[in-house]
Amino acid sequence: MLDVKRLRILREVAEQGSFSGAADSLHLTQSAVSQQIAALEREAGATLIERGRGNLRLTDPGTALVGHTEAVLARLEEAERELDEIAGMRSGRVRMGSFPTAGATIAVRAVTAFRKRQPEIGLELTEAEPEVSVPQLRAGEHDVALAYDYDQAQMPEERDLDQHLLLEERMRIALPADHPLASRSAVSLAELSDADWIVGTCAGTCRDSAIFACRTAGFNPTIGFESDDYQVHISLVSAGMAVSLVPELLLSHKHSGIRVLEIEPGAPVRRVWALTRREARAPATDAMVEVLKTESQRFVRSRRD
Prior knowledge:
- The protein is of the alpha/beta class.
- The chain is 44% helix and 23% strand.
- It has a five-stranded mixed sheet, sandwiched between helices. The protein has a four-stranded mixed sheet with strand order 8-12-7-11, with helices on one face. A two-stranded antiparallel ribbon has the order 1-2.
- The model has no long low-confidence stretch (mean pLDDT 87).
């Protein structure tokens, strides 16, 4: 059987055009290169290099063998990469930060499915809004961060982060069950211009999206309540105290005392992303992103059925 190390030396001699050039490139002596080529010729049973004054030339068998060497080394490199990926999937951990509505739905589905496939990988799931989880991702405290943006306030691309789209969801309006419009299947936001609204507490995509949607509909909302917890939104709506824009991810469970209607026209659209660092990403992180994509699409299909 032909020696792979000697095949590498033959290829280097062919590329450099001389034994001395190959020796310098491979950090060997010229004598060692010559000896290895001679041994390879004995293995091959053919002269591979014709040596002349000041130059050398590959013979036909030598040319053929160099061609096969390229394919052999490429397959070996591919095998090494695959082994590295397998080794990476047998150890380590995936740390994920998720905002609450995704954490209770697609993130839980994803970590459950991932654990069944890769029980050796440690999993960590931390609740955090994107304003917190994305800086933590950049700092290396998370491997994956779930974040969102809206059609009118899109997430900027960052040089060091990759964005993986998981799903798009139309925002809905949550009304008290006894609201005069609750029997409808859809409503325009302009019809709720006199209502008290509950929005997020901080300037950011959730709060700004609700205010932007109302202003687009022709009015400034009367903000009576503020909370970043959608369960508080649901409780206040159920108590008849306010109306609220809510994402589809929140509606995976039934909520008593409220009615959730479509918004027509111009419902705000929220996009959910998985963010990862572009450099030094482990195979397990890529595997988690693929599971998140799969589980997100399953969630979307389940909501349509």
